[in-house]
Amino acid sequence: MTDFLTVTDSLSVAPQITADDVARAASEGYGLIINNRPDGEEGGQPLNSELAELAAGHGIKWAHIPVVSGQLTMEGIEQMALALKEDVKTLAYCRSGTRSCTLWGLAEAFTGGLATDEILAKGGAAGYDLSGMAPTLEHLRASAQG
Fold it and tell me: Which fold has domain 5-144?
């Protein structure tokens, strides 16, 4: 089983999930799964459509926000922010979990959610060092505050 790492009360992140992880997410009350991987990123990776279909069978909403590793875009950040507006327990995943945690942090800053130090602390508590993004988080927060 894949580790689901808690970032906030409503968000966990994980490395690549499997069909068994989708069933587990359903049993643990997740209402949304966000896939941050493009199809074909790695050999043997389950297709987005396959896991989305399994999730639907369990009553879980699905969002596919594919972001190429190291190539974060404002479009990806905006899509992540929109998906995270769902008021449900959410699991976001990518190859290692880092991209999903990073997108969460950027989306939080973009929407004026948590302060930068809180984003860094929550990411760190989940095992992800987001400190290198601090200037970008500050810039996004400043933009969000107008």
Answer: Protein-Tyrosine Phosphatase; Chain A (3.90.190)
